[in-house]
Specification:
The protein is of the alpha+beta class. The chain has a domain of about 150 residues: Heat Shock Protein 90, CATH 3.30.565. The chain has 20 helices and seven strands. The protein has a five-stranded mixed β-sheet, with helices on one face. Strand 6 and strand 7 form a beta hairpin. Helix 3 packs antiparallel against helix 4. The protein is globular. The protein starts with a helix and ends with a strand.
């Protein structure tokens, strides 16, 4: 009996020692994984070695999470190596294994990795889907760090597609949450995103504050990847501020850091900022050289074949998930059938009820399957629409990019002709000047197209305050009085009521009225009048009507009046120029103020626009 107890004690001691060693090994693997996450592009071999070691050792000590850790590190290695289809495959497998382990930490990290990859591949719809799933996880767990990261990433994505108000909303909320953790989490990404929003909104000083805050922190930490993005961002700000010496200093530093990190994506972005610098300096030969370097790298990084393979991997993953769900459903149905058989044997009296319940169950299943098929079809159509819209935007960017190169070449050779102009006749001098002027106009037209496609009207931050609409309208009418007098057109202002105060943005209302008055004068015949009427409606709303006695609009063209680039058959009466952009901008501004706009017109009898705010 004593010998038996001694033997059991020895076995328990050995088991405890093995458990202690296993815990020690798992702790070491987790520490190695955390350290590998900080590796940059210059340590690719070390990153892959860590992934292989974690996978092998984890299998030996029966540590299931090791597979997830190794897959994620491999995905990061493949993304740094520009093997984007392989990276997507690794991240999707990471997501699948995380869900098997029911570990929301790893699941959230995998979703963020996929979102970053889709964003890099210019697939914002997919990226937003992943970020929102990650946000749901962090919100369910009540984890402040995860919420801050998720809101910051969603804000950055809104900024990427030029939704600046939405971007600032999410980023400001993330900044507010960060104050609750007393600086215990890393905020450089949040500051970088805030700087980018202010930069795109034209608030350069605020953008510079956030970028410099990051620069100081990354210098202390000797974070080379962080320093690269800081140099790039600060150079861009100084270019916009036309402080070119400072801009060139930071742009050159960003290129040096990209070369040090052996990153082609960072090197391409550095060439792009240098091309922008020399273009703003009107040094077109240098700008053209850096633009060619950027183009040769950037177009090689992501192509349609890569996107197709990643989409195929995503679909395979979804198909496998559906198959697993179907297997689980089949198993559940089998259990339910067995249970029903036992119930029928024990209580035959309830057979009729069971038949009715079975019939209802089958009917519901059919209805659910039909609903699922319908939902899947709707989702597929929505995704195709999003892809078509993305392809349209990409096509506009590519066409504009390809069109700008010839104009840059023309300006470059024109400048060279001017430099060596001593042998040219006066007529040839004039021809060279006309060539340069035409090239500059062509390049400006391309910039205008890009500005409209980027929805520049949304770049204005709403400034709501109490305004007297009568005073706002009278100020605009005074500015357009001289233009109307050139065509002997009378501007007649009337009102119904007294108090026209409204909580709104006076700047946007002014832009709306400027566009409507400009159109009214442009399409009115000489010796006529343009009437502007201001009135108060129900529910304290204000309605502004701009009515002219001009050429009018055909009834069949009215539905397309507010679409971008719409060109109606009516033409200005004085030979004025019309791009077809004004009314689309007016509609966007009115909707931004939560208002409505409508139009009534009769061909040959004039047009009236009604704006309700």
């Amino acid at each position: 009996m004593l010998t038996s107890r001694w033997f059991i004690a020895v076995l328990l001691l050995i088991a405890a020692q093995q458990k202690s060693l296993a815990q020690k090994d798992t702790g070491y693997l987790k520490a190695l994984y955390d350290r590998a996450l900080d590796f940059d592009e210059s340590k690719l071999d070390s990153l892959l070695s860590c992934a292989d070691y974690i996978e092998k050792t984890g299998a030996e000590i029966n540590f299931p999470a090791a597979k997830v850790l190794a897959l994620r590190l491999k995905g990061i290695y493949q993304e740094y190596s520009e093997e984007y289809d392989e990276a997507a495959n690794s991240y999707l497998r990471t997501l699948e294994e995380s869900r098997k382990l029911q570990n929301t930490d790893y699941e959230s990290a995998a979703l963020s990795d996929l979102a970053i990859l889709y964003s890099r591949l210019k697939q914002p719809v997919k990226a937003m889907e992943m970020y929102r799933k990650s946000l749901d996880i962090s919100r369910a767990r009540g984890e402040l760090g995860g919420l801050i990261t998720a809101y910051s990433n969603i804000g950055a994505l809104h900024n990427q597609v030029n939704r600046y108000d939405s971007a600032l909303h999410y980023l400001s909320y993330a900044q507010e949450l960060s104050r609750q953790v007393n600086g215990y989490i890393e905020l450089s990404t949040l500051y970088n995103n805030l700087g980018n929003v202010h930069f795109k909104s034209g608030n350069l000083d605020s953008a510079l504050y956030y970028f410099r805050t990051n620069l100081s922190q990354h210098i202390l930490e000797n974070d080379e990847s962080g320093l690269w993005i800081d140099y790039l961002n600060i150079a861009d700000v100084f270019i916009e501020k036309e402080q070119f010496d400072s801009a060139l200093h930071y742009a050159n530093n960003s290129l040096k850091m990209a070369i040090t990190l052996h990153s082609r994506t960072k090197e391409a972005d550095s060439y792009a900022i240098l091309a922008k610098y020399y273009e703003r300096k009107h040094s077109y030969p240098e700008a053209f050289t850096y633009l060619q370097k950027w183009y040769s790298l950037d177009t090689a990084l992501v192509n349609s074949e890569t996107n197709r393979r990643i989409a195929d991997l995503q679909e395979k993953y979804n198909a496998q998930k559906r198959e697993n769900d179907n297997r689980k459903l089949t198993a559940d149905l089998f259990v339910n059938k067995q249970r029903q058989r036992y119930i029928w044997l024990l209580a035959f009296a309830f057979l009729l009820i069971a038949v009715v319940a079975g019939f209802a169950f089958i009917t519901k299943r059919r209805a659910n399957k039909h609903l699922a098929r319908t939902n899947a079809l709707i989702l597929e159509k929505n995704e195709k629409l999003a892809i078509l819209n993305q392809e349209k935007n990409a096509l506009i960017s590519i066409v504009s990019h390809d069109l700008s190169s010839p104009f840059v070449n023309v300006m470059m050779w024109g400048q060279l002709l001017q430099i060596n102009a001593e042998n040219l006749t006066e007529e040839q001098h004039t021809a060279v000047k006309r060539i340069l002027t035409s090239a500059a106009k062509g390049e400006q037209l391309i910039r205008n197209i890009l500005d409209v496609e980027k929805a520049e009207t949304n770049g204005h931050l709403l400034h709501l305050e109490k305004n007297d609409m009568e005073q706002v309208l009278l100020k605009v009418l005074e500015e357009y009085k001289a233009r109307a007098e050139k065509k002997n057109i009378s501007l007649v202002f009337t009102r119904s009521g007294n108090d026209f105060s409204l909580l709104t943005d006076a700047y946007l209302v002014t832009r709306i009225m400027e566009n409507l008055l400009s159109n009214a004068i442009k399409f009115s015949n000489p010796d006529t009048s343009v009437k502007i009427h201001l009135e108060k409606t129900e529910n304290d709303r204000v309605r502004i009507t701009v009515e002219d006695e001009g050429v009018g609009i055909p009834e069949e063209e009215l539905p397309y009046l507010f679409t971008k680039y719409s060109r109606i058959s009516s033409t200005p009466t004085g030979g004025e120029h019309s791009t077809g952009l004004g009314l689309s901008i007016v509609k966007r501004l009115v909707e931004e103020l939560n208002g409505t706009i409508s139009c009534t017109s009769k061909e040959g009898a004039g047009t009236a626009f009604h704006v309700t705010l």
